[in-house]
Amino acid sequence: MPSLDDGAGRGRGRPRPVEGEGRRGQLSASRLRVDTPERAGLDPEEMRHLVRDVVDATGGERPWAAGAVVVAGRGPVIAVREAVGWAVRYAAYDPRAGAGVELPPAARVPMTVGTPFDLASLTKLFTAVAAVQQIERGTLGIDARVGAYLPDFHAAAAHGITVRQLLTHTSGLRPEVPLYDCADDAERLQLLRAQAPVRAPGAYGYSDLNMLLLQQLLERLTGRTLDVLVRDGITRPLGMTSTGFGPCPGAAATEDQRRPWAKADRGMLRGVVHDENAWALGGVAGHAGLFSTGGDLAVFCRTLLAGGSYGPARILGPDFVELLLTRPGLGFMVDQPWFMGELAGEGAAGHTGFTGTSLVLDPATDTFVVLLANTVHPVRRAPDNAPRALVGTRMAMAVR
Predict the structure, then answer these.
(1) Cα distances (angstroms) measured from residue 63 to each of 34, 59, 227, 235
(2) What pTM did the predictor assign?
C-alpha cells in the first residue's frame, strides 16, 4: 500500500479530535500510518468485534463471501487492516448442486491485505472525482447541458439532461442497456447516443448510463481517455500504485460467468472486469472496471476526509470536496443506512459495488471503513448488505 508514516496519534475520544481532525477542508494532509485503535481514538473492543464479524461472514459452507479485506481507521491512523478467507476458492459453479466446485486446498489462493479486487461500481466514485476536477478548473459546468459537450448524443440533448443530473442519478435514464450484445464499438456508441430518459428528469433513479455518458463527456472535453484521467489526476499523485483499470493478474476471483444467470459466457473470472458492459467496452468504463486494494482505497478516503490533499498531493480543493460529498452527493451515496449501518448520518458518504466491494467515509468523525469481498465467487446471488451495515455500525460504535 502507499507509504505509511510512523508515529503516534493523540486521539482520545469524542468530542476531542484525533490528530489532524477538524472541519472538512481544515484537516491536515498527514499520510496514513498503521497504529492501534487507541491511538486512533477508537474503542479496541469494538474494532475486535468488527474483525470478528468479517471473519464470521466468510466462514461456513455457504459464506457471504469466499474472502474479504477490511481496512478501517480514523484521522491519519489505520486501526484495522485484516484479510480473511480465500481470494480463489472455487474452480466453477455447479448449477445442478447450486454450489461452487471447491478447489483442492493446495490450489486455493489465500486472501492477503494486498489482494486487488474488481471494484465494480466503486469505479463511479473515481469518475465523479474526475468530473469535479474539471468543474473546479472551470472547463465543465455542473449545471450545463450534456448536449453542449456531446451534441451528437441527440436524445440526451433533446431532453436537456445536465451534468449535475448525471452525477446525482436524476437524469431519468434507464439503469442499463445491453452493450455486450452489440456487434462492435460503433454499434455500442450508437446505442448510447440514442438513450433518452424513461422517466422525467429530476427524480432519483440509479443508472450505469449516467457514468457512461459522463465518461464520453470527459473524454470529449479533455481529449484523454478515462483511464488516463484517473491515473494522472487521482491515483498517480496520491501514490495509489495498486489502482487501475484491468487486466489485473492476482486479483480476487469473481464469477463463473455463464448464461442463464449472467449476460455472457466467459467462465471463471479473475483479473478481468466482471461487469459485462464494461467488458464489452474493453475494460475501461465510467461505471465499472477499476481494480484496487484496501490500502489504496484507504488513501482515497483519507484524501477526501482531509479536504482533497494527501501528503504533498492535492487532487481537489476543500470546497469541491464539500460539493462532492454534500447531500445528495455527486457520484457518492450520502447517509444510506442500508449499507452504512449506524455510521450513516451527519454526511457519511460512500458506495457499494456489485462484486462485494464498499467504502464509507464519515467527515463528522473523520473515520473511514473499506470492506472488499468477493461475494460473487463463484456465482452472483441476491444482494445481502447486512455484513456491510454491521461493519459500519461497529465503526460508529468504536468512535469514542
Answers:
(1) 29, 5, 34, 33
(2) 0.92
